Amino acid sequence: MIKIWGRTDSSNVQKVLWCLAELGLNCERQDWGGKFGGNKDQDYLAMNPNGLVPTIKDGDFILWESNSIMRYLNAKYGQGKLLPSTPEGMANANRWMDWQLSVLNPSIVPLFWNLIRTQEDKRDAKVVQGALDKTSAAWQMAENQLAQSAFVAGDNFSLGDIPLGVWAYRWFNLPIEQPKQPNLEDWYDRLKQRKPYQTHIMIPMT
Fold it and tell me: What is the reported pLDDT for 152?
């Protein structure tokens, strides 16, 4: 049984839970991080020196970093099910996973924190507007890609969609007026039809 440390409202934990569900894998999850604490426990830091969530243990193998965990699970248990079969297709999916970390996250996280995790009277309007502009521009890159295919790495769902899909739910449910990006909206509608997405991503934002 795969064990995972992490709380269900963490975007990075949600990635792994969604991936596990797509692969039909069960896990034993322990609430960790955030209000549950534990990140700085010495035993946890011995497994994950970053002190973040998630961390998984599969037999004697311990792994942290959500995108790496998903790649591992897909390679070991999915026989590559969630990645295109060609080197080019795999690289394309992996690129979007990396893009989420390097481009989308720095834009959308400040927006999410200000609008969801900060009391209204303490929000920084300048930060919100700047983050909204940057996030809209970032999503436009995905919008352009999705004009070419149903999913970010081609016509089939892949690991490339998971990191973006986690944040798409937050994006479309923030109390703001999003720019019209029809390809992105259609892709989001397709994700919402997936049972693992409904179970692990479409939950109250905190």
Answer: 97
Q: 3-state SS of the chain: helix, strand, coil percent to 5?
A: 55, 10, 35
Query: How open is the CA angle 60-163-126, to the nearest 5 degrees?
Result: 125
The 3-state DSSP class for residue 29 equals strand
Q: What average pLDDT is seen over the chain?
A: 97
Q: Two tokens at 153?
A: 């790495």
Helix or strand (DSSP H, E) at 107: helix 105-116
Averaged over 27-41, what is the pLDDT? 97
Angle, helix 125-146 to helix 161-173, in steps of 10 degrees: 130
Beta-strand runs (E) in 79-169: none
> Mean per-residue pLDDT for 128-132?
96
Q: Is residue 56 classed as helix, strand or coil in its secondary structure?
A: strand
* Tokens of residue 56, six digits: 């998984």
Residues 6+ apart with CB under 8 A from 33: 5, 6, 7, 10, 13, 39, 52, 53
pLDDT band at 121 (very low <50, low <70, confident <90, very high): very high
CB 128 within 8 A of CB 196: no
Q: Any idea how long the chain is?
A: 206
Q: Which of 122, 108, 123 is nearest to 174 (CA)?
A: 108
Q: Are 169 and 125 in contact (CB under 8 A)?
A: no
